[in-house]
Structures are given as C-alpha cells and as structure tokens.
Amino acid sequence: MSRGRTLLDFIRTISLDPIGATGVLMATFGGGLFLLFLILSLSGFPFSPYIGIFIYIILPAILLLGLVLIPIGRWRIGRKYPGERPPLFDLTNPAHQKKLGIVAGLTVVNVLLFGAAAYEAYHLSDSDEFCGTVCHKVMEPEWTAYQTSPHSRVGCVACHIGPGAGWFVRSKLSGARQVLAVTFNTYSHPIETPVRNLRPARETCEQCHWPEKFHGDRVDVRHRFQEDEENTDTVTVLALHIGGGNRKGKPVSGIHWHTNPANVVSYVSTDFSREEIPWVKLETADGNVVEFVSEDCDDVDQVLATGTHRTMDCMDCHNRPTHIYEEPDRAVDLALTDGRLDKGMKWIRREGVRALRTPVAEGEDPYTKIRAALGQAYAKREPGLVTEAQLDDASKALTKIWSRNVFPHMAVTWGTYPTFLGHQDDGGCFRCHDGLHVAEGGRTIPDDCETCHALLAEEEQNPEILELISGTN
Ligand code: HEC
Ligand code: HEC
Ligand code: HEC
Ligand code: HEC
Ligand code: HEC
C-alpha cells in the first residue's frame, strides 16, 4: 500500500472498523448540519430555544464525539490489520506534509465551529426565553409573574448570575444540575425558597439601585374594597419612610437605613423559610455591637449553634422583587381599581375572592370551576341580583387572575411564596420588629407604627388627606 494517502484513503481505512466508521459518520453529519443551521441562524432565521439546544449543544456534541471516535478507530485498525495501519507522520515525506496541511486545516475549521457553538450556547443559555421557557412547566410560575413585574425588562441573569467569571461557572454547573433534575423529574414542587445560593445583593441589585439613591418618603394610595353589597371603595394612604443608606456611612434613617453599609444586621433563623428569627445582631461602623434575643427563645446558645446564620441584604425584605404573586383579596382590589372587574356588580369583592380560592386540580379547567363557584354563591342570594352575562364576565376576569398566580402542576397556590415586604400575618418586618426582640438594657427593635410609615388613612371613604394630595378640594 502506498504510504502517501489522501484524506479519502484515510477515511476509507478508518471505515474498516465500526467505531471509526461511526466516528466518521458522526463528525460529518454533526459538523455538516451544525454548519448549515449556523449559517441559517446567522442569516436571521428565528430558531426557538428548543431548536437552539439541538443546534448549539447536541450537534457540536455529536461532532466532538465523532472526532474522538476516529483516532480510537485508527488505533483498533492498527491492531486488527497491521498491514492497513494508517501511517504515522513523517515530516520529511511531501505526501505527509500535504496531509498535515489538511489535518491542520480541518482542525482550524473544527476550532472555529466549536468556538461558534460555545458562543451561541452561552448566549442561548443566558437568554430570558431559555431560562423562562425551556423548562417551561417548571419555570412557568416565575416566568408568568416576572412578565408583569417592574423587572420584566431586566434579564434573569442580571439577578440570578450577575457579572464575573466565578459566578458564571457556578451558575452553569448549577444549571446543568437543574437540567438533570428536570430530565429525571427529581426537582421539588414547588421550587423551594428562599433560594440558598443566590448571589449577594451587593453584586446584583446594587448594580442598578445604589444605596445613596433612596431618600425621603413615598406616599402610596391603595384602594381597599369592602366585603359589602356595594363593594364600598375605601382608601389606605401610607407615607412610607423609604429613607436612605449612605455609602460614606453618614447617619441616615428610614427603611433603607438597613442598606447603609455602616449598619450591618445579621441574624439566625431556625427554620428553612427564615420565618423564625430568635436572634438578631447589629454592628455599627463605630464598632458597637448589640444583640437582640426574642423573649420566646429559651436557649440562645443552642439557637446560635444549630440555626442558620445570615447577613441581611435587599432580599431579606425584597424576596419577591419580580416573581410577585398576589393574594386573592389584593388581586381583586387591584382588578376593581383598574376596571377589570365591574365595581357595580353587587357583592363581587366578597364572592370574587371566595371563588378564586375554589380548589382546581391539575388538568381541570379553572374557568369552569370558578364560574360554577360564583354561580352557586349568587344562587344563594336574592334572585336577579346579577345577570348571567355579568357572571360570565366576572368569571373570565377572575380566571385571568387565577392563571397569573396558581399553577397546580408545580403545587404553587395562593400563599406558596409569601412576601417579606410588609407585615402580613406577623411575617415580613415583624419577624424582627415585633417588640419582643430585646437587648441588654431593654433596647428593643422598634415596633411602633410610626417607625416605618405614617398611616395617613386606613380603609376610609374619601379621607381628607386624599383631597389634599390630589388637590380636588
Ligand atoms: C429583579 C431580579 C430578578 C430577576 C430579573 C429574576 N429573578 Fe428569579 N428570583 C429573584 C429572587 C430575589 C429570588 C429569590 C426568592 C427567594 O429566595 O425567596 C428569585 C427566585 C427564583 C426562582 C425560585 C422560585 C421562586 O419563585 O422564588 C426561580 C425558579 C426563578 N427565580 C427564575 C427566574 C427566571 C426564569 C427569570 C427570568 C425570566 C428570573 N428568575 C428573573 C430575583 C430575580
Ligand atoms: C439591570 C438593572 C436592575 C437590577 C439588576 C435590579 N433592578 Fe430593581 N429595578 C430596575 C428598574 C429599571 C426599575 C424601575 C422599573 C419601573 O419603574 O417600572 C426597578 C424597580 C425596582 C423596585 C421598585 C418596584 C416597584 O414596585 O415599582 C424595587 C423594589 C427593586 N427594583 C428592587 C430590586 C432588587 C431587590 C433587585 C435585586 C434582586 C433588583 N431590583 C435588581 C432595575 C434593576
Ligand atoms: C429592611 C427592609 C428592606 C431592605 C433591606 C431593602 N429594602 Fe427596598 N424597600 C423596602 C420597603 C418596605 C420599600 C417600600 C415598600 C414598597 O415598595 O412597597 C422599599 C422600596 C424600594 C424601592 C422603591 C423605592 C421608591 O422610591 O419607590 C427600591 C428600588 C428598593 N426598595 C430597592 C432596594 C434595594 C436594591 C435594596 C438592597 C440594597 C433594598 N431595597 C433593601 C424595604 C427594604
Ligand atoms: C432580621 C431582622 C430585621 C428585619 C427582618 C427587619 N428589620 Fe428593620 N431593623 C432591624 C434592626 C436590628 C434595627 C435596628 C434597631 C435599633 O437600632 O435598635 C432595625 C431598624 C429599622 C428601622 C429604623 C431605622 C432608624 O432610622 O433608626 C426601620 C425604619 C426599619 N428597621 C424598617 C424595617 C422594615 C420596613 C422591615 C420589613 C420590610 C424591616 N425593618 C425588617 C432588624 C430587622
Ligand atoms: C418595621 C416597619 C413597620 C412597622 C413597625 C409597622 N409597619 Fe405597617 N407596613 C410596613 C410596610 C413596609 C408596609 C407596606 C408593605 C407593602 O408594600 O404592602 C406596611 C403597610 C401597612 C398597612 C397597609 C396595608 C395595606 O392595606 O396595604 C397598614 C394598614 C399598616 N402597615 C399598619 C400598621 C400598624 C397599625 C402598625 C403598628 C402596629 C404598623 N403598620 C407597624 C412596615 C411597618
């Protein structure tokens, strides 16, 4: 056999062995198809993230596997048919020089292909569509809540990964683990929170919101409808002491006193959800340390030894900055405020909230269940109070609210993901600001109502303050 073989000869020889032949096939098809899709994609053809996984991850993997199998095949042929042993390189042989040229050329092409694949795979796996839709069923609750949130134009990666190589690698490793969990259906339903490995807020949130930015009060006017026949419209007016946190450590007050680097608050929680906080420590820039212990705590040493330690950051209050799920009563208040639900429909505030709580099992049609529940509720009241058309319209609006917040296939329902940003059910701020956390000398974490806001009106009809604010007087 001639020693100066062309590439074709080489392939023919390799093909004598099944492993080598498979390698050649895989490399040709994987590489060829990848090149074709890459050209289509670069010329603007819109591929979905699913096809993206195929193009940028599966095809290059096939190509790579093929390239690995080829030398294995070559080695096996060498053992099986010593006469067919493909030659080793002899750089003085002109035929080999030519072949080396071909191999070098192919290597450059392969490196370019893998480079393109890695680049595209990186962009794909960082895109919001990928995060939100590829694991569609799993991420549906978060994706849905996110799309109507203040951060719907902020990428998932801005909060979940942030800049820098270290977190990039960590996130891809954890992403690969998650893909496996989804493939083998071993993830938890619902996804457990608080998320344990979230990057510190300093490196995510604070890339966009800097502590000096917060200042002063913010007045919120909230419509709260009553559970009476007329759905009486009342307002709550709060002046929230947003306050600020100065990087230079100057004393600042208000809610964002917490974000001032001069005040470091750390705590120990004794449950997974961080709702039980028996011990809180405050360290100030002047070196002062104050430890607050809950009066409900019997054994501080045990709590310190076995509890989970954490330093407070944005997420201890803003745990729902973008995956914001509503409560039925607040969701109905909002729908009545902006007209998605008809304020004129008698008792709808009361019955709407109840209908939203109707259990709907996975696979059942929520509209049918909600429509039936609402129909039954009104059937118990005087006849002719509402029309069938009103019931249909209200049920449609309620079903939209339901679909925005409840996801039976992920076991996400009302209240699954509570917010820490207030004090519903004595949670949130009242985990610490309950008046029971006492330091030596009797100092407590403040719980008087004026600490965080001035309550200018609470569920009042046409309060004077509203006329003052809106200038209608
Ligand atoms: C503004 C910042 C921000 C953005 C943008 C963001 N997230 Fe989150 N996400 C968070 C925070 C903070 C948590 C942690 C909640 C907790 O620990 O209780 C979280 C939690 C989650 C969870 C755990 C379950 C849950 O509801 O808490 C999933 C899943 C998730 N995010 C997916 C996504 C996806 C997918 C996107 C993009 C479509 C995205 N996130 C965009 C801040 C963000
Ligand atoms: C990439 C920039 C960016 C990042 C990162 C980011 N935000 Fe925001 N955030 C914004 C923008 C822009 C707005 C204003 C949206 C608007 O006014 O509609 C906003 C609004 C908010 C608001 C006001 C919401 C409201 O009800 O109007 C809060 C609270 C907030 N962000 C908290 C956070 C927290 C906590 C994090 C970290 C988990 C975070 N943000 C990360 C850009 C960002
Ligand atoms: C101690 C709890 C707490 C901490 C810690 C905290 N916030 Fe807030 N933040 C609040 C509350 C309460 C509000 C007002 C309530 C609301 O928006 O509904 C608020 C409001 C905001 C707003 C809207 C401000 C406005 O003028 O409307 C932004 C933006 C924000 N926070 C971002 C952050 C960021 C970023 C961090 C971390 C650096 C942070 N917060 C830390 C409790 C906190
Ligand atoms: C992990 C415990 C903890 C949580 C949760 C917490 N705080 Fe605090 N907060 C503290 C401590 C400790 C202080 C300092 C008390 C002192 O100085 O004696 C404080 C102080 C404050 C102050 C007074 C700042 C000043 O001007 O002196 C405000 C306002 C405040 N917090 C608002 C909030 C709000 C609003 C929330 C909920 C969104 C909240 N905090 C949640 C621990 C907490
Ligand atoms: C540690 C801070 C803090 C203290 C102390 C506090 N609040 Fe609040 N409160 C908040 C925050 C933050 C919100 C806004 C949460 C949100 O954005 O929905 C709020 C919201 C409210 C609301 C509005 C609820 C609604 O309809 O939206 C009422 C009413 C209220 N607080 C009453 C009180 C009363 C009464 C006290 C005294 C017993 C008190 N608060 C003490 C932080 C506090």
Structural write-up:
This protein has 473 residues and is α+β, with helices and mostly antiparallel strands. The chain folds into four domains: 7-126, no CATH class; 129-191, no CATH class; 218-316 and 433-470, no CATH class; 328-410, no CATH class. It contains 14 helices and eight strands. It has helices spanning 7-14, 18-42, 49-80, 94-126, 128-134, 136-147, 156-160, 165-183, 300-306, 328-337, 348-356, 366-379, 388-405, 464-470, and strands at 218-225, 233-240, 263-269, 279-284, 289-294, 308-311, 437-438, 453-460. A hairpin with a 7-residue loop joins strand 1 and strand 2 (233-240). It is extended and about 100 Å long. 23% of the residues are buried. The protein binds heme C (5 copies).
Keywords, please?
extended; alpha+beta; 473 residues; 8 strands; 5-stranded antiparallel β-sheet; binds heme C
Task: Note the topology.
Elements: H1 7-14, H2 18-42, H3 49-80, H4 94-126, H5 128-134, H6 136-147, H7 156-160, H8 165-183, E1 218-225, E2 233-240, E3 263-269, E4 279-284, E5 289-294, H9 300-306, E6 308-311, H10 328-337, H11 348-356, H12 366-379, H13 388-405, E7 437-438, E8 453-460, H14 464-470
Antiparallel strand pairs: 1-2, 2-8, 3-4, 3-6, 4-5, 5-7
